[in-house]
Amino acid sequence: MLCLWAILRENFVGSAKKPKSVKLIVGFIFREEAALTRTAKILEKRFGGIDFQSPCLNFAHTSFYEREFGNNLKRIFISFKKLIPPQSLARIKIITNKIEQRLSLNTGRTINIDPGYLTQAKLVLATTKDYMHRIYLGKGIYAEITLFFKDKSFRPWEWTYPDYKTEAYIAVFNQIREIYAQQI
Fold first, then answer.
1. Is residue 3 assigned to a domain?
2. For residue range 25-79, what is the model confidence (pLDDT) as tens digits?
3. How far apart are CA 20 and CA 28, in angstroms?
4. Does residue 6 belong to any structural domain of this protein?
């Protein structure tokens, strides 16, 4: 009877496990190339070597950032070679917010830094803004599952930002997912 209980317990009772390491990604919104170069160097010193950089994409999906940055904004994504524990996302968002502040001018930020992570199943972004589909991580930081992987590609949710729904962005994250798949 004890043996049967052990089998049942193993199959039906969940137990906490250490999560797999995840792929750190960072998206940048910027106007001046110099701001991107400087920020990428700072992040590389902090988080290690970069193993992927997307092409420079036009960022015209919202006018939200134009008052602060001006127009003709660009977007680039990078990923880092070193995998991270998923629970470090809140700490990383706090670090990137401090970097944004440090690189700001009297007129405002010179760059927007959006950290997140990628797994085989999803893309998670960190944010300071709460909403119905976001989970609180601690220290004023929330997480959002922005994309999910199904049928050989990332897919958006109804709440996914419009730019993250585009073929260009999804192609970037599919490429980063291939790198991650080789690492794990």
1. no
2. 999 999 999 999 999 999 999 999 999 999 999 998 777 777 888 888 999 999 9
3. 26
4. no
Instruction: Return d(Cα 61, Cα 110) in angstroms, integer.
Output: 19
Per-residue CA distances from 1 to 4, 5, 6, 7, 8 (Å)? 5, 6, 9, 10, 11
Residue 17 phi/psi, 5-degree rounding, is: -130, 155
| Other CB atoms within 10 A of residue 45 CB | 8
CATH number, domain with residue 138: 3.30.70
Residue 109 within any structural domain of the chain: yes
Global confidence as pTM: 0.89
Distance CA 166, CA 75 (A): 13
Q: Are 99 and 38 in contact (CB under 8 A)?
A: no
> Is 178 part of a structural domain of the chain?
yes
